[in-house]
Design brief:
With 494 residues, the protein is α/β, with parallel strands linked by helices. The chain has helices spanning 2-19, 27-30, 37-42, 63-66, 73-82, 104-113, 150-160, 174-177, 219-236, 253-270, 327-339, 358-374; strands spanning 44-48, 118-124, 164-169, 240-243, 275-278, 289-293, 305-310, 342-348, 388-389, 412-417, 420-425, 433-436, 454-459, 467-471, 474-478, 487-493. The protein has two domains: 2-293, Glycosidases (TIM Barrel), CATH 3.20.20.80; 388-493, Immunoglobulin-like. The protein is built from twelve helices and 16 strands. The protein has an eight-stranded parallel β-barrel. Strand 10 and strand 11 (420-425) form a beta hairpin. The protein is globular and about 75 Å long. The relative contact order is 0.12.
Length: 494
């Protein structure tokens, strides 16, 4: 039954692609898709890594791969804790994944309190377990483990609170993710067929970043990936489709075009604006929104982009040894990203029982408290003539979020909205004094800087009147606000 449904769905996708007149599966057509205005305005979203890997809660969400690599910490931990792999494999965690305390309304309320405008749960991670109801595979949270349609329940809870819901697919890596289990006596063994949990468990390429590496996924696997993703589209109508890495491989390119055309055409039918997030030039520039994993750009970009990062530095899922980032550091990243024409997707890793850790909650609520006061400098803003000023340099590129940024009270970021300019000091001054050099009085005939009229300066969240003056050195501000988070100055200009 499952196979016939999959075949029919693939047929429907093929027919649909060529019957629709709006988007066709080629880069030229897909390049006409605009970035949704709601996405550009949202600025801040929540990512959720939750699945079977939350049960062992050891090392990271890559436990399913690494536990089968002989000699790895995960391999040794698994034998010590659960026994030999032939007797207790990854699939045996499924009955332990009960999610008995999972409350989607509590999650959604927390995310709303944190100031998020969109939520992107991982629908399927590399391990191949679907966190949604599926007609394609039995290996899903609705039929096994929790016995619940996690994605569907989260969608309903988020929509009640006017947050957009997305879905993340990491399925593409599954073709090799469990392959090391065939290298010794384990529960991963041939023969396998489509629909089996571990299928296809192929050998892993030597260089996972080589876009022409061999072996590569088969046509059968790529078709399966396509119909699984289209099932998510049709069943849940996500406003965002996020894809993890490896879809940039050359073997995936034809399927990416088919998927994008199908998604955009379906959204056209719904009357919705949707967006695809991608990495590593998997999609041709202009056809979707690029994403920088655990990093950001050093300068403003003329195109809209996204950073995805996690509250924990060491893992995307919950582990017993998560290294949590301070809320103030995350807020500095958010401000920096928004000033450079981007948005932030911040990950939370719930526990296997469905609860969110005390540390995650506290950090999210601190972010939310700041956003309640200063959100007008973030939401629905645009970039100014320059992103900022100050001595601290941003290390550009992926996986740089672990590099500590020692911001000073001389580091400012700018946004603009509703005729107001927002100058955001990334660190509170110890004496309450600030100087914004970009807003100094300049000789317009010599300097191509700001020459507008400043009518007033206000410190958001302050109870006392903000003192200010302007000279050739800059805009001098005196504020009594004391904070361990960025300080926002609202500047009335004419």
């Amino acid at each position: 039954m499952k196979k016939s449904i999959s075949t029919l769905l693939f047929y429907f996708i093929s027919v649909s692609l060529f019957s629709q007149k709006v988007y066709t599966p080629d880069w030229e057509s897909l390049d006409k898709r605009p970035v949704p205005s709601w996405f550009e305005d949202a600025k801040f979203g929540i990512f959720i890594h939750w699945g079977i890997y939350s049960v062992p809660a050891f090392s990271s969400e890559w436990y399913s791969r690494n536990m089968y690599i002989q000699g790895s910490p995960e391999y040794e931990h698994h034998i010590k804790t659960y026994g030999e792999h032939k007797n207790f494999g990854y699939k045996d965690f499924i009955p332990m994944f009960k999610a008995e305390k999972f409350n989607p309304d509590e999650w959604a309320e927390l995310f709303k309190e944190a100031g998020a405008n969109y939520v992107v749960p991982v629908a399927e991670h590399h391990d191949g377990f679907q966190m949604y109801r599926s007609e394609i595979s039995h290996w899903n949270a609705y039929e096994m483990g929790p016995g619940r349609d996690v994605l569907g329940e989260l969608k309903n809870a988020c929509q009640k609170r006017e947050m957009q819901i997305g879905a993340s697919s990491h399925r593409i890596e599954h073709w090799f993710f469990m392959g090391h289990g065939k290298e010794f006596e384990s529960d991963i063994k041939d023969p396998m067929q489509r629909g089996d949990f571990y299928w296809p468990a192929m050998p892993e390429p030597e260089d996972l970043h080589d876009i022409f590496s061999k072996p590569e996924p088969t046509e059968e696997f790529l078709q399966d990936w396509l119909v699984r993703t289209c099932e998510i589209i049709d069943r849940y109508h996500p406003k965002i489709l996020y894809f993890d890495w490896w879809i940039q491989h050359s073997a995936c390119k034809p399927y990416l075009k088919k998927l994008a055309a199908y998604y955009y055409n379906r959204a056209q039918e719904w009357g919705e604006q949707v967006v695809i997030n991608y990495k590593h030039d998997a999609f041709q520039f202009g056809t979707a929104v690029p994403d920088v994993e655990r990093g950001q750009f050093a300068d403003v970009k003329p195109y809209f982009w996204q950073t995805d990062t996690a509250i924990a530095l060491n893992s995307w899922c919950y582990t017993e040894n998560n290294q949590f980032r301070p809320a103030a550091d995350i807020l500095c990243d958010l401000v920096d990203i928004v000033s450079k024409n981007g948005c932030l997707l911040l990950n939370v890793g719930p526990k296997a029982d469905g609860t969110i850790s005390r540390e995650d909650r506290e950090i999210l609520l601190k972010i939310g408290d700041w956003m309640k006061v200063n959100g007008e400098a973030i939401y629905e803003t645009k970039v100014w003539r320059k992103y900022g000023e100050g001595p601290t340099k941003i290390v550009e590129g992926q996986f740089s979020d672990g590099i500590k940024k020692n911001f000073t009270s001389e580091d400012f970021r700018f946004t603009t909205s509703g005729g107001k300019l927002y100058a955001i000091a990334l660190k509170c001054s110890s004496n309450g004094e600030y100087c914004i050099r970009s807003l100094g009085e300049q000789d317009a005939s010599r300097q191509a800087n700001f020459h507008g009229i400043i009518k007033n300066v206000e410190t958001l969240g302050a109870t006392e009147k903000t003192e200010w003056r302007r000279d050739g050195q800059g805009l001098h501000i005196k504020s009594g606000l004391v904070s361990d988070s960025p300080v926002v100055f609202k500047i009335d200009i004419d």
